[in-house]
Amino acid sequence: MKAIVAVDENWAIGNKGNLLVRIPADQKFFREETTGKVIILGRKTIETFPNQSPLKNRTNIVLSTRKDLEIPGATVVHSVEEAVEYCRQYDQDTVYCIGGASVYREFLPYCDTVHVTKIDHAYEADAYFPNLDQDPDWEITADSDEQVYFDLTYHFLRYERKRK
Asked: Residue 164: its pLDDT value, please?
């Protein structure tokens, strides 16, 4: 399983239910990386999508504690274990955790690769991704050249779990 996330220099990912910033190249990378794949996300995350609808051309798995939740075009699961079991039918290299913060924390132990867009800026935030730079189990295995969007600089990084 993989995760894909955009973080600021403090590993923040959102504020008040919204992304910190929208960078077209990051959105393009997200689309290219996840189209045709399986994505796992939380209920609050799907509620931020246009029409609160699943992302097109992907298998959407939504984690929610609400037992009565039904989302047309998505599979709703009620626990991490149920999501992991459901995803066993797919090649694990095609399964991506896409957030939000609590979903990332819960699924990170199942991930072996994390695609991080690291933005060289600190935003006001209330949601964070675990800091992989401080976790000895993770290492950077790919780093793009510096990217620029208006006055923002950022890098596309790939972190991989160290093999034991």
From this structure: 73
Q: Give the pLDDT confidence of 71-115 residue by residue, as tens digits.
A: 999 999 999 999 999 999 999 999 999 999 999 999 999 999 999
Tokens for 48, please give them. 């931020």
pTM attached to this predicted model: 0.96
DSSP, collapsed to helix, strand or coil, labels residue 27 as helix
Helix, strand, coil percentages in the chain from 3-state DSSP, rounded to 5: 25, 35, 40
Alpha carbon distances (Å) from 120 to 117, 124, 156: 10, 14, 11
- The CA distance from 48 to 152, in Å, is 24
* Domain boundaries, given as residue ranges, for the chain: 2-161
Question: Which amino acid does the sequence have at 99?
Answer: G
**Contact of 122 with 7, CB cutoff 8 Å:** no
Q: Across the strands, what pairs with 138?
A: 161
What is the distance between the alpha carbons of residues 162 and 164, in angstroms, rounded to a whole number? Answer: 6
- CATH architecture group of domain 2-161: 3-Layer(aba) Sandwich (3.40)
What residues form DSSP beta bridges with 63? 42, 77
